[in-house]
Amino acid sequence: MCLGQDEEEEKRMSNIVLKNVCKSYDKEHYAVKDFSLEIPDREFVIFVGPSGCGKSTTLRMIAGLEEITGGELWIDGQLCNYVEAKDRDLSMVFQNYALYPNMTVYENMAFSLKIRKQPKDEIDKKVHEAAKMLGIEHLLDRRPAALSGGQKQRVAIGSAIMRRPKAFLMDEPLSNLDAKLRAQMRVELAKLHKELKTTMIYVTHDQTEAMTMGDRIVVMKDGIIQQVDTPQNLYDMPCNMFVAGFIGSPQMNFLDGTVTKNGDQYAIDLGGDSIPLPKEKTADGKLDSYVGKKVKMGIRPEDIDDEPEFMAKHPDCHLEAQVDVSEMMGAEIYLYLEYKGNKMTARVAPTSKARNGDTVKVAFDPHKVHVFDVETEQTILN
Q1: What is the rounded distance in angstroms from the CA atom of residue 166 to the CA atom of residue 164?
Q2: Is the pTM of this model over 0.85?
Q3: pLDDT interval class at 13 (50, 70, 90)
Q4: Domains in the chain, please, with CATH?
Q5: pLDDT digits (tens, 9 = 90+) for 32-50
Q6: How big is the CA angle at 39 (ends 36 and 45), to the nearest 5 degrees?
Q7: CB neighbour list of residue 330: distance below 8 Å, 6 or more residues apart
Q8: SS3 helix, strand, coil % of the chain, rounded to 5?
């Protein structure tokens, strides 16, 4: 793919900046509101959120397929609000592959270079290099109708990377594939990003895709950015209940509690059972104004366990719960628990003896407790 050409590398440098970008279809309803983000060259950024959160609309505004209602879009220092899509030097990969059915795989991949009147031998070289990179060399003579979903998606990606754009925009490219293929393609896309050294902006509603592929993740809800951070920081330090619940699978458990204080020891009272919070977590005094008030306590399924060693390590954080369902996943068991009207999920070892209908004792890791404001749903403590 002519990867060694320095001048081509230089030409493809891509810094994308969105400043207070908005998309509204009338004066009251915004699909995207005040979206501000800087995407440095070569970064792999993922827009994630539930259906209707504005992530695809934002991607289409960057591509030039949707008009920007307000704000500014800058690509490499150029204001691009009114630059036509074909002049932005971006490539888009769609969910439905967007291949020409009457052309072979080779012709589909070569098409963008052909219309730019590139020399035949150069096109041939680039097509074969891209096909080799994507493992589709043996498919070059076939038409799209003869391909599987995974093969079609590889061809669509191959067509997009042919002309080496400034950035790749991908709109849920794996959502039509089965689970096994999706996992395989996730790895391939991450490898492709390393090889191409090009900016990628990727839209998905699947938080597993987001967590495993992105350098940074933009979590969106109702057209508004909730949090932008690395996958690990989003997981460990969510800024609100929405992000905490959206990132992580199975999702974080939320329990109703009240903040208590005895001397310098804070705890969350869950209606009889008290979870003492480590002093290093509460030293900044953020909980002072919440003493005696209701809060939401968050704890991830992997931080609840019934294993004897874990129980012994956290002797002050035990509680009893009813097992509604025990789900064997192979390497682990998901216990779906009921505790004082709250539903909880615990990820435990496959050696767990807990079965449907049992009353079990579990422990929490207090270092992994999150505390949220009931009204604003903002994080008080991570």
Answers
A1: 7
A2: yes
A3: low
A4: 6-245 (3.40.50.300), 250-381 (2.40.50.100)
A5: 999 999 999 999 999 999 9
A6: 100
A7: 350
A8: 30, 35, 35
